[in-house]
Write a structure and sequence with these properties.
Length: about 210
């Protein structure tokens, strides 16, 4: 009997040692995502609401009144992703500056984060099966939380939930496009969830992707 208990104890210790802790799992997924992305790319961000907002920008704010206004996407592994409204003055240029943080969490997930940045987060495993891994990342002493849903077979993020406090959350499904051997997230189906109502999904798409 004693021998059986010792064997079980050793087996449990071995199994525990084989499991990565949540932060190591995140770093593993993060590294895999970066490997499948080009060093940099650019494109144009489109959605119905974006186009509606761009149409409402006064012509007086156009730099060139004969050129169109659009949202330019620039991505690099070093700096993450930026959305800038082109052909407008400073008042509207940064209209979508915070979109990556609020919806896509690109600043943390798809760029080379500084080691000190990830140390600000508490990482926990919400679900771990043979095919699916769900990790939550929360800044220490903050109510805001990011939950990422990962397909373990291909090491891709399929969904990102970004909770801001207890009463508001965005949930984003991520789709990928294969371009020149890279797997680039290009379409984001996003829904806002509040304590009072849920919005209709908004579809954001990065069009005309150019790898640099």
């Amino acid at each position: 009997m004693l021998r059986l208990i010792i064997i079980l104890f050793l087996f449990m210790n071995f199994s525990f040692a084989q499991q990565n802790n949540p932060k190591e799992e995140f770093e593993k997924i993060h590294s895999s995502l970066l490997t499948n992305l080009p060093e940099s790319f650019s494109g144009e961000l489109k959605s119905q609401n974006i186009q509606k907002n761009l149409n409402n920008i006064p012509k007086d704010s156009y730099i060139n009144k004969n050129a169109r206004v659009y949202v330019e996407v620039t991505y690099s592994k070093k700096n993450g992703i930026n959305f800038v409204v082109k052909n407008v003055d400073e008042l509207y240029r940064d209209l979508y500056k915070n979109l990556p943080k609020q919806i896509f969490a690109f600043d943390l997930l798809l760029s080379r984060t500084e080691p000190k940045l990830i140390e600000k987060y508490e990482v926990a495993t919400e679900l771990d099966t043979e095919t699916t891994l769900i990790l939550s990342l929360r800044i220490k002493n903050s109510e805001n939380k990011i939950s990422i849903y990962i397909d373990k077979k291909v090491n891709k993020i399929l969904r990102i939930d970004y909770a801001m406090g207890k009463n508001f959350m965005t949930s984003t499904i991520v789709l990928y496009k294969d371009i020149k051997g890279y797997s680039i997230p290009y379409k984001f189906i996003t829904k806002n969830l509040t304590s009072k109502e849920n919005t209709m999904p908004e579809i954001y798409e990065i069009d005309n992707i150019q790898i640099k």
